[in-house]
Each structure stands twice: as C-alpha cells, then as structure tokens.
Amino acid sequence: MSTATTIDLIAEAQVTEERFLRQIFVRDQMAEWSKHPLIMARADGVHYWDVQGRRYLDALSGIYVASVGHNNRRVIEAIRRQLDVLHFSPPMHGTNPVAVQLANLLAELTPGDLSTVKFQCGGSEVTEAAIKLARQYHRLTGSPGKYKIISRYQSWHGSTLASLSASGLKSRKTVNEPMAPGFLHVFPPTCYRCPFGKTYPDCGVTCATIVEQVIAMEDPATVAAVMVEPIGHTGGVIDPPDEYLPILREICDRQNILLIFDEIITGVGRTGRMFAAETFGVVPDVLCTAKGLSGGYAPLSAMICRRPIADAFWGPIEENPGFVEGHTFEGNPISCAAGIAVLREILERDLLANARLQGERLRAGFEGLAAKYGVIGDIRGKGLFQAVEFVEDRATRQPFADGFGVKVGRRALDHGLLCRFDPNWIAFGPPLISTAEQIDEMVAILDQSLGEVLDECAATGAP
Questions:
Q1: Were both Cys, which of 54, 111, 240, 430 would link to 434 (CB 3.0–4.6 Å)?
Q2: Do 55 and 192 sit in the same domain of this protein?
Q3: Which helix (H) or strand (E) holds 357?
Q4: How far apart are CA 133 and CA 227, in angstroms?
Q5: Does residue 15 lie in a domain region?
Q6: With a threshold of 0.90, does the pTM exceed it?
Q7: Average pLDDT, whole number, for the chain?
Q8: Residue ranges of the alpha helices (H) in 84-160?
Q9: Residues 6 or more apart in contact with residue 406 via CB below 8 angstroms
Q10: What is the CATH number for 268?
Q11: Cis status, amide bond into 97, omega within 30 of 0
Q12: Are 379 and 405 in contact (CB under 8 A)?
C-alpha cells in the first residue's frame, strides 16, 4: 500500500478494512477494537477530533499526559527553537545544557533533598532504573544481600520486565510469566474494600503496618526497596489514608530500605501540588515521574533521588562504577526543552492552584451524581485525578457483575467524553488548564451517559 493510499484511507475514515488495521497494534484487543476503531486526527486545548471530525472532550489528558493541554504554543515553540540548535547529544560521553537546566529546575521543585536526576523516555524505564538504583545502592554501601522489592497488588509500574514484575495486575502479568525473581507484593490500602475486613480509622492502618511483618518474614537483610504509587491508579484510584505513607517512610528508615514513589501519573501537578509527595507530606528516597512532565510533546521521564543516595555513586572509578544504567535517548535535548516549557507553563500560570480549584469542582460534581444515582459507592482521588466506583448495592457494596463501568464509559465516549473506564469504576484526569465550564461539561456528559445506561438496564430487567 502506498503512502498516498494510506493517507487517503485515514482522511476518508475508511479504517475498518482489515488490510489497513492489521498494520498496527493498539493497546486494546485488535479484533475487538477494529469493530469501532478510534483514530484521532488533531487536538487543541482540552479537545480531540477524530478522523471523521467528531469532537471529544479530553477528561483523561490523553492518558494523564497532556498536562498543559493540546497544541500549547509555548511548548511547541520551545521544541522548534531547540531543533535549530541541538536535537541529539552523545549520551555515552556527556550531557547537554538543556538537560542540565531541566535537572536543576526539578531539583528546585521536588521536596526535601531530592536533587539528583536521571532522565529516560518513559515511565517503565525510570521505574526499572529505580529498581536497579536500589540494588546497586545497597551493594555499594555494604549490604549486597538486599535485592528484593516490595510493591502492591493492583499496582502498575510499567511494561519492561522488572517494572512489570513489580506490578500487581494478574491480567497483565500472567500472559508474560514467569516474571523476574525478587519481587513481593502486599495488599494496597483499599479502604472501601479492606482486604483485612477492617474499617478505617479503627483498623490500625494494617495495610501499612503489615509491610514490616513481610519484611521480617523475608529477612530485612534481603529487602532493598518498597515501591508504591502514592495514589494507585489501576485498582480504581486507590487514595490511601493520611497515615499510610508516613508509616511506610518510618518502616523504611528503620530497616535501611529505600522508599520509591512511582509518580508517573501523580507527578507534575496532577494532585494539585507539583508532586504527590508534597500532597501527603512524605519525601521518598527515589521519585519517578513521566507522562505530564513533557505534556506529551516528546518522550520524557525522570528518576530523582535524594542526595545521600546519589553520593553513594560518587567516587574514584577504580572503586566505584557509578550508576550502571543507560539508554540511547536519555536527556534528549528536544524532550528536555519540552519539559522545561511545561514546568514553566505550570508555574507561571499557577496551574497547581487551578488543579486544586477544579479538583474541588470535580469532586462536587461527582458527589452530585452520587446523590442523584444510587449506584456510586465511593469517590476517590485528589486534585484532577479522581474516580467513582459503581456498586449494585450501596449497603453491601456489591459490585455489578456485568461490567457496568465499561458500559457507562463507552456511552460517554459515544457522547464525546474521553475518560478511563473499567468494569467497576471510571476515572477523570483532565488537563491542568481545564476551566470550571469544561469540568461541568465533563460531569454533565457522565451524568447523561450514566442515566441512559441505567434506563436501559431498567427496561431490560438487567441489574
């Protein structure tokens, strides 16, 4: 097929032909996706348009990426200027001024003494790098037996082997097993459905304190790090109780274990602060961020570690190899230029305050839907990262058996709303530039979609 023919197919939205669709993999199951293919053609602000010209309100920032919106001229111009100067620098021999500038800016913005930065292209790369960092750090500091990583069930840390091994989603792990050795999992802080049958706050925050028991049973001399998302995503936006992360911090300090925050989603303003570490008042040893860091304009991620951790990798090469980790496009000047422009846009437009303000409006909208419909059992999240969980019965918290959340999410997509939907929950993560009117429109479309699905269930007698 010629390029011209391919472009014509896209332009005419003739994308259901198998000869075209089989040329590309998407994240969904291919045969299912091809029944109703979605191919975006352009975007601006908080909207997408597909190849058929239909408009979509982006309540998901693409996938928590478009932090400063689509077609942001400041970021685009920064990339364009950088292309005229330096598009690639040799990573084996050094770095470049743009990467240094971005690293310094991140060091200023991260809490505590998080100050040393390693750039990569995506979230999986930096969570994988954090795992390597933890193991190498303990080897350099006299504890070579520390190699195990404790993470949580229902977590998602990435698609590369170590990051996938740290993840806790059976649907994504089983098909790739066996996983890498040295990874343990504990239950997440799902207060709405406590795996220990307890009720907060009388639970003693067992989901956190039990981590120390796991460490003891494994032998503290073998555990290198605890890796968590401050707010877990794939389990339904798992928002922990206030005591949870401070307890993990205290345990790790006592046991000489690194605490790693996976802020691939929650970083760069998503929770209303630059990092969720600030939102919860806990400084990790290592913080990983990506997605919104470049606003989706170029592949970029960053692993940021505390000064004492970085110091362990400093010394004469005869005694210390440094941090043994590298990728071709790390510190790419084009990506770093995008990152600087995104962070300046957030700071100068005070988009953190807007995320908090619109987050409050989003929460109020979700609460209004919960009052209107009897199928919303819980509302979770912070800032512009929130979700509702659907239940068939609020009193018993009985979930729907037929993927109710997917039905609502697909109906919302039909009405031009892009959001994250799973069988039992729906999540919003709109751009930080979202206005009150746009938040209201997002909630209104969800309201319409939820009402229509409930009416259809009532008409058919479905639960």
A1: 430
A2: no
A3: helix 351-372
A4: 12
A5: no
A6: yes
A7: 92
A8: 97-109, 123-140
A9: 421, 422, 423
A10: 3.40.640.10
A11: no
A12: no
